[in-house]
Amino acid sequence: MHKKKTLLFICPSHEWGTRERGVLRDCKISLKNGFATHLYCYRDSFLDIKAKEFDVTTFYHHGKTNYNFLKWYKLFNLQREIKLRDISLIHCYIIDFLWPLSYFLRRNFHTPLIFSQYIEFNRTYRKLWHKLLIRRLDRMVLSSNEIEENVSLCLGIPKRKIVFCGLGINTHFEPFAEECMPHFLALKKQKKIGVWVSPHLKNCETLKPLINATLAQNILAEDKENIRVFLFCEKNWNQNFIFPELQALIKELRVEDSIVFAHMLPDMEDFSIFIEEGLTFSKSGPLEKIQRYMDVWLSIEDIDIFEDYSITALLNKVPILVPRNGVNSEMHRQYGMIGETYKSGDAREMREKWEYIFENSKSYSKFLGEIRESLLKEYGEETYEENLLEQYQKVWKKRQRFSRRRLEE
Question: Per the count of CB atoms within 10 A, which of 70, 87, 97, 369 is most buried?
């Protein structure tokens, strides 16, 4: 593609997870390859804040995202911006925007439309108007092979339009040297469980099973300080919406000594721990650089998606403990001894499974070392960038040929 091309990424979302980090990654790839890069998102969302750090041009969506056909006129400003900004390719990530975009582009024969899907659909889109609009989609990009059948079935997309690109995980990270982490190494005798907590959580329901499992571990163990649970978050915990509720729960169950509130700072090159009001806090650099020091990486969000931080944990030879769903179970079936699964919300099974991993840690670490190259090839950033740019090139050329044919008619 020509360097003057302008790419538009569409993801109005207040969340911050694997999908949103994927949008930011794609924007960075676009910038790296010399394209003008625009992002359509919510103002002051976590994605908006992160995108501005990399000088991505942003403009904003107002209101909700699930407009029905009669309300699509509210998105005419997006249609106008596509024309004004001379967009060469549109990459969308929100299914509710795929339909109006397909409609707006029905007479635009030269601009490719790509959609990225990270989770399984929980409903079908097979009505007549869906079938007519989905024809405008040029490519469906999947983060996991495991959801291909679901996507093809729910959207009625021919498999020739579906491609697997992976997650584009950053593999160029050097774990922190031990001399940078004296505070952390002081906890060497304790088993450490790492958990990523989304900054957009509105309540503690997702974390309650983990806190209850931690309490049970302390009661059943002879040494009450035998585990430390690190709650990693990109947002300062003192400014986190759920912190007062979570703080009260932890103090009520008296597990303060087992929980560490870890604030991730991208530019920090070491790890520090401090105590405030009886609670343990820490500051650390990027999560990928500290994961290798965990004994288990725990995922708490029960959605049909393989969390990107779970992949980086595996690359750091750390076994994972994830909710039992279709995607996670298929990953375990495909790769083997990468960790364990548990029933979402079941504190007892969660605790039993992490104990099993503790007991067999050497076997897990050895196996993860053996499959690391395979994971790099399938989910690493080099393969992803190459595949993504190849798809951009293919659909753009195809659209140019189609546009020329229409003009000749």
Answer: 97
Which domains does the chain carry? Answer: 6-168+381-408 (3.40.50.2000), 178-379 (3.40.50.2000)
Contact 72, 100 (CB under 8 A): yes
Which tokens go with 273?
């721990």
Residue 297 or residue 304, greater confidence: 297
Q: Give this prediction's pTM.
A: 0.89
Q: In what order do the strands lie in the sheet with 89-92?
A: 57-60, 36-41, 6-10, 89-92, 113-117, 139-142, 162-164
- For the stretch 150-187, pLDDT in tens is 898 899 898 899 999 988 888 777 766 666 566 666 66
How many Cβ atoms sit within 10 Å of the Cβ of residue 34? Answer: 12
Alpha-carbon 32 to chain mean position: 21
C-alpha–C-alpha distance, residues 358 and 368, integer Å: 15
Q: Which of 352, 301, 345 is nearest to 118 (CA)?
A: 301
Q: Are 211 and 196 in contact (CB under 8 A)?
A: no
**CA atoms of 232 and 284, how far apart (whole Å):** 9
In degrees, rounded to 5, the angle at the alpha carbon of residue 49 between the alpha carbons of residues 54 and 32 is 20
Q: Hey, what are 359's tokens?
A: 């007991």
Which tokens hold the place of 335? Answer: 């790769």
Nearest-angstrom CA–CA distance, 313 and 394: 33
230: pLDDT strictly greater than 70: yes
CA distances to 19, 51, 156, 183, 296 from 93, rounded to whole Å, are 8, 15, 18, 41, 31
- Say if residues 34 and 46 touch (Cβ distance below 8 Å): no
Q: Tell me if residue 97 falls in helix, strand or coil.
A: helix
